[in-house]
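Worked example (supplementary).
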Amino acid sequence: MTTSRRGRPPAGGRAQILDATYELLRDKGIARLTTKDIADRAGTSEGSIFYHYRTRDGLLSAVIEQALEPLVALRVHGVGGAPLPEILDIFTATVEEFLDRAVVVLFAAQADVDLRAGLHAFLAANADRKPQRGVELIGDHLAALQAAGRVRAGIDVHTAAFLLVSSCVLRVSQPWLIGDTEVPAREATVGTFLAMLAP
Amino acid sequence: MTTSRRGRPPAGGRAQILDATYELLRDKGIARLTTKDIADRAGTSEGSIFYHYRTRDGLLSAVIEQALEPLVALRVHGVGGAPLPEILDIFTATVEEFLDRAVVVLFAAQADVDLRAGLHAFLAANADRKPQRGVELIGDHLAALQAAGRVRAGIDVHTAAFLLVSSCVLRVSQPWLIGDTEVPAREATVGTFLAMLAP
DNA sequence: GTCTATAGGTTGATAGAC
DNA sequence: GTCTATCAACCTATAGAC
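After joint prediction of all chains, the assembly is encoded as:
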């Protein structure tokens, strides 16, 4: 797992192939993604691709897993004692920043049952329910505030947290799915969410 | 546009090809979708496919547009005077029922820039912002209730409506994107949403 | 490790009989 | 309208030189 080394990496190295594949996935889509196009964009030869990744699917899996790396590396920990607006601002910004890159591979994996199964297996083995635990964490914090009377009583705070995360997913996905359309800004969504929580 | 005729349609007709393509898209994905597989599943020959749809892309576009048909046919109208819980229940159920079928083609279209561009153009030309107008409509109804004091003051009701629709999209998409995971039931989400709106 | 050359198989699309 | 037969292009993967 030597992911870095001294000096300029060789032109046809693993990283260039990985980056070129991600960019083509994002710009053209997976349907007409060929190893020839990848080689051209990476400035290498097709032979190198198969030397490094053995198969086209192996390369695609590597690209998918790289884009999900922030989720794997994530250390889930308590949200601390910062003011709620700040917590939700940072949380939603982090989620959307991750999704900006991840949707490309999440959508690409939908094109093939095997890729999708591999994606799900990878998440199960390496991400250990982190998306859900993020929602749980926010929910737990809201529950504490609710107990302290700073969040209105009578609402299921974990379901509320799911609503907030949903808006992050849709905001990032919508331009891809149905084209450019108006969506409330993230800050406005967080603001409205806070107002709906107030006692 | 003769979509029906007397008697049993010929085995290799347009409809069978369309259905077979949708099913393969849903079950296997677009990446390895071949006209041969489509012909086999439809019980027809490849020749018939190209006779009816001229090109593979033409067929795919037809499948996409058929799955979005409920959106095109939708007549957007006021929500009437039913109780809010009932309105939101019916609204979210309708949205998710549509998405259950639509995500298959919405995701498939992400595999190719041309397909995606075609999808966006089709929606712009035939759906006339109906997704957004659905959100607006719920928002407008909430605004009226807010003016009547039955929804708490100080919240942006249109952003709130966006939160609710987001949860529908994520609930339907999540099994595809990250695999089977716990998600709050639709009824629970609507219930929590209502509780957050109460004055 | 990277390249070139090429094999081997698949794919979308066409032609022409029925 | 549907079928069979066929083709030309393309794509993944391998072999072997450097």
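Two points are worth noting when inspecting this output. Chain B has ten helices and no strands. The first helix of chain B runs from residue 14 to 27.
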